[in-house]
Design goal:
The protein is mostly helical. The protein is built from 6 helices and 4 strands; from the N terminus they run H-H-H-H-E-H-E-E-E-H. Helices cover 49% and strands 7% of the residues. Helix 5 links the parallel strand 1 and strand 2. The longest helix is centred in the first third of the chain and has 20 residues. The protein is globular.
């Protein structure tokens, strides 16, 4: 969700700076539509099975991990694009901390309370509509890579990981460098015509 909001922010900023967003369509993507469809399908399954089905099943963890790995593969195949290195590193850091904590993104009770002060979730449980799990800092493996950065947006509160910050930076780098051509060239005057 944070990444989607960040992409919207970068696109709005690019428009304010009069960048040519159409230039993104001319970027050379590798992996084809089939890999893109697999990534989109896995993230759709993640949204349905992981976010909206309660519990902590092996199937949910497998879908969550596979969606991240598929996205990483797509980014690695497109490492020539601006921002790909930051994006790939962000995905790797998120995968590492999730795998180290049984497949879920750990968040401390304090961070979760910052986001949702009205909710109470027990330690070790997965909050509703979340790919996270509530774990105290002392029980979190690789705690520094978990959702520890509290962010207060005008419309909501959230917490992000170092990996998420790299994903946001990578998306911004891609949007701004892929649109660097910016100005749409005007056609040259026809030969023999005076202007």
């Amino acid at each position: 969700m944070v990444l989607a909001e960040a992409v919207i922010f970068w696109v709005v900023l690019a428009l304010l700076f009069r960048r040519d967003l159409g230039a993104i369509a001319h970027s050379s993507f590798h992996g084809g539509w089939k890999l893109g469809a697999v990534v989109v399908g896995l993230f759709a399954a993640q949204a349905l099975v992981v976010l909206y089905v309660p519990g902590q099943s092996v199937v949910q963890m497998a879908i969550l991990t596979l969606s991240q790995v598929a996205l990483l593969l797509f980014v690695v195949l497109n490492r020539h694009l601006p921002g790909a290195a930051l994006f790939a590193l962000g995905i790797v850091l998120n995968i590492v901390v999730m795998v180290a904590n049984d497949g879920w993104m750990p968040i401390t009770p304090e961070a979760y309370s910052f986001i949702h002060p009205e909710r109470v979730v027990a330690v070790g449980e997965r909050p509703p509509a979340s790919k996270g799990v509530i774990l105290p800092q002392s029980e979190t493996r690789l705690w520094i890579l978990s959702d520890i950065v509290a962010v207060e947006l005008p419309w909501r509160r959230t917490a992000v990981s170092i990996g998420d910050i790299l994903l946001i930076a990578g998306a911004g780098q891609f949007i701004f460098q892929a649109t660097a051509g910016g100005q749409i060239a005007l056609p040259a005057p026809a030969a023999g015509r005076e202007t």
